[in-house]
Each structure stands twice: as C-alpha cells, then as structure tokens.
Amino acid sequence: MQLGLIGLGKMGGNMRERLRRAGIDVVGYDRNPKVSDAKSLADMVKKLQAPRIVWVMVPAGAPTRDTIEKLSKLLSKGDLVIDGGNSKYTDDFENEKLLKAKGIGYLDCGVSGGIWGLENGYGLMVGGSAANVKRAMPIFDALRPEGPRDEGFVHAGKVGAGHYTKMVHNGIEYGLMAAYAEGYELLEAKDIVTDVPGAFKAWTRGTVVRSWLLDLLVDALEKNPELEDVSGYTVDSGEGRWTVEEAINLSVPMPVISASLFARFASRQKESPTMQAVAALRGGFGGHDVMTVKEGEQLRAEGAPRHEKSVQAKAAKKEKPTKSAAKAAAKGRKAASAGPSSGTGSTSAAGRGRSRATRAGATSGTGSTGAQASKRGTAKRGTAKRAAKKA
Question: What confidence score (pLDDT) does residue 386 get?
Fold first, then answer.
C-alpha cells in the first residue's frame, strides 16, 4: 500500500518511519529537501499510483488550507486526502466541500502521541465516511499502538468529528498538566516535604493519578529538581481556546480547563493589570499601601509570607486597636488620604511617611509584606529546602 505524506517534521518524520516499518510504501514531501522524497507536491503525486491516499501533516490554519487547495488541483477523482494536523474542526467542512466537488474523498484525523509515537504508536481520532475510513484502515492500524484497535483508534463520527475529539483531548490535557503543576508548587512550598521528585515518582504506580503526563513530569524533575532556569512563560497552541469557546457556545460548564487556559495567559504578563487594579482598590477602601512596581519586584526576589493572616499578625504587634468610634473614623480618614495609585506608583507622601511597622501590615494584594518583613527571615521558595538537602 502507498501513502503520500506531506510534512516531515518531528511528528511527520516519525510517522513516515513507523509506517515504513509496517510495510507501507511512503513517499514523503517536505520543503526541506534533505528529508523529502519528492522535489515538489506535483512530483510526490506523480510517484503515487492511483487511486491515491495523501496525508497532510503541516501546521494548522493557512498552511493546511493552502496545501489542500493545491492538492485539489493535482489529485484525481477517487483519491483520498487525510488531514492529520491540529486543524480546527470547522476547517474540515470547507476542505471536504472543496475536494468533494472534484470527486476526492476527505477524512480528518486527530493524532496524539507526540515525539514518542514512533515507538509507542499514536492515538487516532477520525472523522468522515465509513467507506473512506475502511479504505485507509491499513494506514491507521500501522500508526496506532499495538493491541486492541479500540484502545488507540476511534471513528468518532462525521467529517470534523476527529478534530473535534482531538480538540477536547487537548483541553483535558491542559487541565491535567495544570493540576500536576499546582501540586508541584504546593509540595515545593511546604518545608516538611524534602523529596518532591520522589513524591511524584511514588505516584507512578498503584495510585489513581498515575499517567503518562505524570511520567513525563517525573522525568523532568529527576533531571532538574527545582526546574532552575525554566521560564514559566507558557504558550497555547489553539485547542484549549477552541475547547473553551465550544463550552461557551454549548453552555457546558468548564471551570477546570478554562482556569488552566487563563493561567497560561497570566504566565505571559510581567505585571498583571488585573492585580494592579486590585492593589489600587485595596488602597482605596482599606488604606492599604500600594507598592510600586520596583517594590513588588524586590519583594518577589527576596520572598515574603504569602498569607494575609501572618502579615496582619505582624502589623497587630505594632498597632493597638482603636476603642472609640470617633477615633476609628478619624483614623480611617487619615488612611484614605494616602489614596490609591494607578498600581504602578506609590501612595501619597502621607502614605509613604508611614512607619516600617505599618508597611509590615496588609499588603496591596501581591501576597508580600514590606522589605523589613522580608529581611527578618523570609526566603525565596525552595531555598531553605535546598539548604536542608545539602546539609
């Protein structure tokens, strides 16, 4: 059996190798001549015997649409095109319409497995007609994991169903990764836990949270226990957004996946306008100090108590409660006179003139106390734990 495969990157290149191991004659095309088996799309088509099957494995969006449009002019009636990229399911409707007008079949296939698929196989989710799925089944069987077909392959439904199912799969992936990551941060923050990588590794057998994603996190932590020099800046490839959009359109509650997507947005902000506004509001209604950006950065670098109660306790030692209502009101007016800033500047001179003891009080909402509190023994996350390990 022959297959034309367009796109020989990390996924496509490994897929070509797995297919060849299974006896499929693959003619691959890529813009990189070093890995391509054909000089052009037209050359690839010429090398295939009719009726042809061509698998498109290029980036979603314009690259995929442009490739399929070109194929519509090169292929013949009776040929079949499979889009195996991460296209949005709505693109499948247009692709099928374009090809159907010329008698060319179309399937959409969500593919999961990443760079490990060469050895482990790929999870496949397919949309399209039963006849086209049956025709391409030898290819699907070669790509999926060994074992029962229904444990690595599904004919999910009509055209678009394959990519829709893969979209939801990736949305779930967002939530799972965020849950493991939050657990990692909490374990790192607690001083009595001295072996965080070991805790995750212990979960890989016999527990209800074991998974391949957990295995990957264990591998990462064994290589770099504190994830030093790993930026928290996290991109999203699109499927998470599409999943949340669909949830809104269909009125499906999706708090976990939505939160995991929004967390990625937050990871890209040096300063959060949302929290700047919160800091300014707290300064307005409670007279709390509003730190400058520089002050906030310094406190993050030094590390500081995260919990409001511990911060308030320090402030309480320096400040006696006001007994009379008149004095309390006067005190509130004085605090309010400090006025909130935009979130990027300090409060007024009156606010700036407060004692360091007051600065150790409630914070602006960043979860940090002032510099004096930091110097009294707070430490950057994980520093004490690392020191304990070395000792």
Answer: 54
